[in-house]
């Protein structure tokens, strides 16, 4: 009897689960359940003997999401060493497209929301949600050539790198360099243990790695640098075999629990009872920059990249395929939600409207990309049918 694969390791089901969780968060925030859930999310949990005293919402965004970034970093390292970005020849085209997918949304956002109260939100529309984008591609892209997926994957990975840099550089505050230095020592110990685990394979080494990883996370969280960066550092230094096993073990938990819980918490915002003209420029800047800025930036820069690709590179993608990838790139979601929380942490009103902007802009991009990908896939299926 054949055992069906775990749907949490696929691409379609986790994307649907993420969307449902965000929808429930938005729904319950605007029902009589709001006060009870808000009270739970604001409840603080402290770690005795440390400076860690976080609300439940921050334990989700700083703690659970660090596990997600650990898995992301493992994937990044694999792609940079053995995957789609392991050589300049492979990386140059998606890198140019990713540059456009960052610069144009920033420009669009600043045109709409560049005043002093909302200018700090410019990083929000630069992100692409890999899980969502690949999920939509899997749902609607039957018949598309694999190189479209490869291009999108490389593009989204580079977007993740840029998002991680933004989080690390832009949103550090009152950095305690002693704690961060100790965290670097923790990363070094984690690196050494991962090599030892690769050579010896003893379960006690894995337990020691888990302990060192948690301590490193706590040190980063106490340093003033966003705690998710701990997951990034640990994932990047882990030895390949233990890293692969860790990613395989954590993937269902990340897709089935961590990301949906984060989506619920991040989307738990009250829809303001105002007319559209009274909404913050941050809302409109994100709503336009994600679906419009991304598709223009990725498509234009991607098309230019195909024209100047180096000798020996893969064949150029047709512009229609780049356009479909650009539309998928407008689905910001997970990292954009995190950036919205960080960019407007000091102003809850603008933060909530920015989060709504991420949800609306990503939904628009999801719908547009679904149409583009479906039409393109139908064209490829028709060509294949005519040739057979």
UniProtKB/TrEMBL annotation:
It is found in: Cell inner membrane; Cell membrane. It is a multi-pass membrane protein. Its main location: membrane. It catalyses: Na(+)(in) + 2 H(+)(out) = Na(+)(out) + 2 H(+)(in). The chain crosses the membrane at residues 12-31, 56-74, 95-113, 119-138, 150-171, 177-194, 201-219, 225-244, 256-275, 281-304, 316-342, 354-375. Keywords: Antiport, Cell membrane, Ion transport, Membrane, Sodium, Sodium transport, Transmembrane, Transmembrane helix, Transport. HAMAP family: NhaA. Na(+)/H(+) antiporter that extrudes sodium in exchange for external protons. Belongs to the NhaA Na(+)/H(+) (TC 2.A.33) antiporter family. PANTHER family: NA(+)_H(+) ANTIPORTER NHAA, SODIUM ION/PROTON ANTIPORTER NHAA-RELATED. This is Na(+)/H(+) antiporter NhaA. It comes from Microbacterium algeriense. The lineage of its organism: Bacteria, Bacillati, Actinomycetota, Actinomycetes, Micrococcales.
């Amino acid at each position: 009897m054949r055992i069906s694969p775990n749907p949490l390791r696929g691409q379609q089901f986790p994307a649907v689960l993420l969307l449902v969780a965000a929808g429930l968060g938005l729904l319950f925030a605007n029902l009589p359940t709001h006060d009870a859930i808000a009270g739970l999310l604001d409840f603080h949990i402290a770690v005795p003997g440390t400076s860690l005293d976080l609300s439940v919402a921050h334990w989700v965004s700083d703690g659970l999401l660090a596990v997600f970034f650990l898995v992301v970093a493992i994937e990044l390292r694999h792609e940079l060493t053995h995957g789609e970005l392991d050589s300049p020849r492979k990386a140059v085209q998606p890198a140019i497209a990713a540059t456009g997918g960052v610069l144009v949304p920033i420009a669009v956002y600043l045109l709409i929301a560049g005043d002093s109260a909302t200018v700090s939100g410019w990083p929000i529309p630069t992100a692409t949600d890999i899980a969502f984008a690949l999920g939509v591609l899997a749902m609607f892209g039957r018949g598309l050539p694999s190189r479209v997926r490869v291009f999108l994957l490389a593009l989204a990975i580079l977007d993740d790198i840029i998002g991680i840099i933004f989080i690390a550089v832009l949103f550090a505050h009152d950095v305690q360099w002693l704690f961060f230095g100790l965290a670097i020592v923790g990363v070094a110990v984690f690196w050494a243990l991962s090599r030892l685990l690769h050579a010896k394979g003893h379960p006690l080494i894995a337990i020691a790695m888990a302990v060192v990883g948690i301590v490193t996370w706590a040190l980063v969280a106490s340093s003033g640098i966003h705690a998710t960066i701990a997951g990034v550092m640990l994932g990047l230094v882990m030895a390949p075999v233990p890293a692969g096993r860790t990613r395989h073990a954590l993937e269902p938990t990340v897709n089935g629990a961590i990301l949906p819980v984060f989506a619920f918490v991040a989307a738990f915002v009250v829809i303001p009872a105002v007319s559209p003209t009274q909404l913050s420029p941050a809302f409109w800047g994100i709503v336009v920059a994600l679906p419009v800025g991304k598709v223009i930036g990725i498509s234009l820069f991607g098309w230019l990249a195909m024209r100047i690709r180096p000798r020996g590179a893969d064949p150029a993608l047709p512009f229609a395929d780049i356009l479909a990838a650009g539309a998928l790139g407008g689905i910001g979601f997970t990292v954009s939600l995190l950036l919205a929380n960080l960019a407007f942490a000091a102003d809850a009103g603008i933060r909530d409207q920015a989060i709504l902007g991420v949800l609306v802009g990503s939904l628009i991009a999801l719908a547009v990309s679904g149409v583009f990908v479906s039409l393109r896939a139908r064209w490829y299926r028709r060509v294949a049918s005519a040739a057979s």
